[in-house]
Design goal:
This protein has about 130 residues and is of the alpha+beta class. The protein folds into 2 domains: about 1-60, no CATH class; about 65-130, Double Stranded RNA Binding Domain. The protein has helices spanning about 10-15, 60-75, 115-130, and strands spanning about 25-30, 45, 55-60, 75-80, 85-95, 100-110. Residues about 35-40 have low confidence and may be disordered.
C-alpha cells in the first residue's frame, strides 16, 4: 500500500509549495518504542496511529497531489500507455482566462507506469517552483 503515497522527498517539496490538504498518513521519524526522533529514516504512519507530539510531514496519495495541481495551479499531469510496455508522461496547463489548454511537456517515455507517474509529479513540482522564483 505504501506505493500509493508520494515519496518522502517529494512530500517535503510539496509542503514547501503550500500543499496542506488533509491526509490519512504522515512521514514520521519518531521511533515508536522510544518516542525519539532520528533524521536517518522516515516511516509512513497512519494519522490515527501517530502520537499527538508527532509533527511529521503529510504523506499525500498521488491522486490527491494531481488533483491539487489541477485545482490550485491549473496543471494537469497524467500517464498514458504508449508502445508495448512503455508509458508516456504528459503535462497540460490551462491558459488563464480561457478554456484553451497548452501542452507543456509531451511524450516523455518511461519503462513503467510508476516511473512515468513519479516523473510527472517531479515535473509538476519543477514547473510550480520555477513560477514562484
Amino acid at each position: 500500500m505504501t506505493q500509493e503515497f508520494v515519496p518522502y522527498e517529494l512530500a517535503v517539496k510539496l509542503k514547501e509549495l503550500g500543499f496542506d490538504e488533509p491526509c490519512i498518513a504522515i512521514y514520521s521519524n519518531a521511533n515508536p518504542k522510544t518516542g525519539l526522533y532520528t533524521l536517518k529514516k522516515y516511516r509512513l504512519t497512519l494519522i490515527k496511529q501517530a502520537s499527538q507530539k508527532d509533527k511529521g510531514v503529510k504523506a499525500p496519495l498521488y491522486q490527491q497531489v494531481f488533483r491539487w495541481f489541477r485545482d490550485v495551479h491549473k496543471l494537469w499531469g497524467y500517464q498514458i500507455p504508449w508502445s508495448g510496455n512503455m508509458y508516456c508522461m504528459q503535462i497540460w496547463r490551462l491558459i488563464e482566462d480561457s478554456e484553451t489548454v497548452k501542452t507543456i511537456q509531451d511524450r516523455v517515455i518511461m519503462n513503467t507506469w510508476e516511473e512515468a507517474e513519479l516523473a510527472c509529479l517531479e515535473k509538476l513540482i519543477e514547473i510550480v517552483e520555477s513560477k514562484s522564483e
